[in-house]
């Protein structure tokens, strides 16, 4: 019995190796499906981890209070309503009256032209307090950050981001250099460490200046555009948001039927949104890969039916010398399974090579997880097995006498 099964296995392998072109066509779609699954899931997971790293780098307990309401209009997030209602007194009240808040950094941001020598560049100016370093987890690449004394004395000093350095100074050291922001001359005292981009916004394309300096000399405003808040802990981030909302509604004298004239965002919500987008992307990739595997399975089905049609006499001889229906069934299931796993292995090597190429050429983060690699191989094996059931059953049901009398 065992010899019959081994003989059936050898016949299956010999049949496949004797028709390399047919085998190649049968496994092509499965190979593409597995390779696309590995590459696209790798890109999706790499992007998700990179975004999460950047967001957490901004401060995992960060809450941002924006003046006015934020709404999505024509696909763009913009602010509507009063923009002058958020003040320094609001920021001070948040720091002292909200028990779930650890640190507060009031800020006013505006895009202005910056000039160094003959180079002019437009970038975001963030007027803020020294506490912004702790709240937004800002580290320095060189130089120093302004302190409370420089803010109180309205010192014209600036800390620039790496993108600004590249645009204005190239490879020169910017520390100690003078730049013209608007019509005010500032001295560069430091450069922030790279942080990357979040939601398409370059976190390195900005200049930090003391809040009092900017409000009195540069922007001529008495209100804030943002208040950056650090919650006392990750568990306190939602309670801090509730406390801030209640406090600001009371301070702004908003009746119950009135909407907020401010917007509160926290990093936990941003991370959850990013994770939700990543899950949707992974489901899309999975559906594409499954479609490719199904197409590959149909290819295996066609090849197996054609193979059985050509080998009816062989099946009849095997049945005549003692092979049972189950032996014929196993023989052809081995063939179809082998096609599936062969396509999976070929797709695995193609996917690994393509992932390395994408990472090398584009610099995109690609994370290969063993779970998805093993899963893709299991799916390819299952595809070959499932789509091989009908042809194998058809071969096993052949009558040996009719099979011997049939000309292929």
Q: In words, what does this structure look like?
A:
- By secondary structure, the protein is α+β, with helices and mostly antiparallel strands.
- Helices cover 55% and strands 20% of the residues.
- The protein has a six-stranded mixed beta barrel. A two-stranded antiparallel sheet has the order 2-3.
Q: What structural keywords apply?
A:
elongated, 55% helix, alpha+beta, 13 helices, two-stranded antiparallel sheet, 6-stranded mixed beta barrel, 408 residues
Most strands sheet: 6 strands, mixed, barrel
The tally of helices reads 13
Please count the beta strands (DSSP E, at least 2 residues each). 14
Mean pLDDT: 83
Q: In angstroms, what is the radius of gyration?
A: 33 Å
How do the strands of the widest beta sheet line up side by side?
4-5-12-7-9-8
pLDDT < 50 stretches: none
Straight-line distance between termini: 28 Å
Query: What is the H/E order?
Result: HHEEEHEEHEHEHEEEEEHEHEHHHHH
Sheet-strand content, in percent, reads: 15-25%
The coarse overall form would be elongated
Structure class:
alpha+beta
User: Which percent range fits the helix content?
Assistant: 55-70%
Summarize this structure briefly.
The chain has 13 helices and 14 strands. With 408 residues, it is an alpha+beta fold.
Indicate the topology.
Blueprint lengths: L1 H16 L2 H38 L4 E6 L1 E5 L2 E5 L7 H10 L3 E16 L2 E10 L3 H4 L4 E4 L4 H5 L4 E4 L1 H7 L9 E4 L2 E9 L4 E2 L2 E2 L3 E5 H8 L7 E6 L5 H15 L10 E5 H44 L1 H9 L4 H38 L7 H27 L3 H5 L4
Parallel strand pairs: 5-12, 7-9
Antiparallel strand pairs: 1-13, 1-14, 2-3, 4-5, 4-8, 4-13, 6-9, 7-12, 8-9, 10-11
